[in-house]
Q: What sequence folds into this?
């Protein structure tokens, strides 16, 4: 068997651990593995294919990023292609991709990615490619799996950052607003805000009212706590308002969202008169080593993907369904977002310990 591995979309801590587990589990069965560089670019462009033998994956479990490279501009169904007049257009190159996959003698594809990449994996499977998906995203918004790898590492980074904001906020009697990743779901913001004792947390799932946010800060002020920490998911939006876009999608790109933290900070300063600072934690949440939890989850996912291939189970995604790793049909996963449920115990816990959602 010749197994191709691809990493697509934004990177997440644990990608290399998945690659290592796939390669080693395949090697045990006498199979060979190959890495498609930069999403699917290695089969459609100039990026090439890497031979992934046991030496190629030695010592990479703890390394962040992906040794294969990745891109969020690499959808083979909407491949950015230069036109004769110099303009760029999205062209469906999926048939070329399937042909290149077959010409390379590959028997199966392990596609490691988030919602976008898993949709591509599903559509390639429909076109006849034997595919197993592995769910990756720091945002934890893929349905069908309790968690994705990368999430725990991102929450750990965010929690440590909020811990550090406490001391400087308290020293200066300031409000500190920190914007965290989470386009469509507030998992990172919620879990880190609760773990690091933030005072307000704003999620995409709960549109906020700036008056209520300021009420929470004034209440703290009135009870002798002259500083506050406000955690904002990048996809949070005011009641009746829109998600904040930094850049609108053009050919081959995805919308970039962000900037809500700065807006919230300006509104707090204006309404409360409190000195307020904001920061965006950004890609720090995607960088660095995976936590122990993410390493183990990623290794389990990679090994489970190879077991699925051994059983010729394709068109599926490996999933964390404690206590085991199982497979779920990609068709049940794509086009859906795993939001934080409004009745989640963590939301209730936050409310019980006095954290405001600005609602
Ligand atoms: O999907 C993961 C994610 O981290 C989002 O939370 C964020 O909006 C996006 O990636 C940022 O991606 P980029 O690397 O294109 O800035």
A:
């Amino acid at each position: 068997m010749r197994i191709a591995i691809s990493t697509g979309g934004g990177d997440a801590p644990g990608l290399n651990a998945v690659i290592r587990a796939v390669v080693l589990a395949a090697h045990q069965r006498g199979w060979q593995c190959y890495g498609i560089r930069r999403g699917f670019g290695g089969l459609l462009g100039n990026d090439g294919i890497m031979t992934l033998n046991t030496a190629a994956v030695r010592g990479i479990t703890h390394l962040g990023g992906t040794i294969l490279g990745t891109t969020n501009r690499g959808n083979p169904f909407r491949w950015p292609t230069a036109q004769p007049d110099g303009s760029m257009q999205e062209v469906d190159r999926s048939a070329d991709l399937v042909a290149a996959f077959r010409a390379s003698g590959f028997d199966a594809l392990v596609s490691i990615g988030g919602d976008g990449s898993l949709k591509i994996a599903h559509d390639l499977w429909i076109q006849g490619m034997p595919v197993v998906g592995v769910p990756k995203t720091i945002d934890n918004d893929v349905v069908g799996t309790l968690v994705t790898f990368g999430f725990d590492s991102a929450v750990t980074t965010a929690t440590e950052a909020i811990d550090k904001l406490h001391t400087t906020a308290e020293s200066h009697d300031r409000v500190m607003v920190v914007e965290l990743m989470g386009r469509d779901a507030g998992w990172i913001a919620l879990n880190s805000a609760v773990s690091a004792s933030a005072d307000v947390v704003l999620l995409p799932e709960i549109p906020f009212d700036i008056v209520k946010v300021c009420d929470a800060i004034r209440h703290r002020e009135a009870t002798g706590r002259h500083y506050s920490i406000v955690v904002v998911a990048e996809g949070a939006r005011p009641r009746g308002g829109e998600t904040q876009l930094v850049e609108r999608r053009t050919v081959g790109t995805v919308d970039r969202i962000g900037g809500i933290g700065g807006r919230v900070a300006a509104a707090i300063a204006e309404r409360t008169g409190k000195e307020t600072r904001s920061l965006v934690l950004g890609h720090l949440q995607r960088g660095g080593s995976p936590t122990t939890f993410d390493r183990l989850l990623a290794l389990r996912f990679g090994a489970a993907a190879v077991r699925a291939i051994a059983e010729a189970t394709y068109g599926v995604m490996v999933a964390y369904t404690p206590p085991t790793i199982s497979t779920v049909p990609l068709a049940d996963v794509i086009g859906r977002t795993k939001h934080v449920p409004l009745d989640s115990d963590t939301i209730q816990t936050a409310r019980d310990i006095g954290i405001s959602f600005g609602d």
